[in-house]
Design goal:
Number of helices: 4
Number of strands: 0
Order of helices and strands: HHHH
Low-confidence stretches: none
Amino acid sequence: MAPGLKIIAAMAVSSLVAAPYAAAAEPSISGYASPAGQTQQQIAIPTPPPAPTPPKVNRVAAKTETAPVVRAPAPQKPVQVAQPTAAKLPFTGLDLAMLAAAGCALMVMGFGIRQITRPEAS
């Protein structure tokens, strides 16, 4: 059997072995479907309650009686809104320095193999 034919036969057998596992896998759309693809919650800045309206004064009674003392509402604490922080990407675990080192090592090995397999000049 030719070497190329062996490789093609091995690929065909491996694809037949892997077919049931591929058919049993969930489609990736389920990870992006509802509710994951929708907004989970709405964030709103709380608004302060409206100022109270002054009480109505009976003008007839006000002439004979003293006017009621209207007290100003107690000062409310200012609402502190969280300041947005600088956006950062989450750490995915991929160390780029290790990836670059592995790439450099592969390049060095490739150049080494090229030098070893090069025919000597006569």
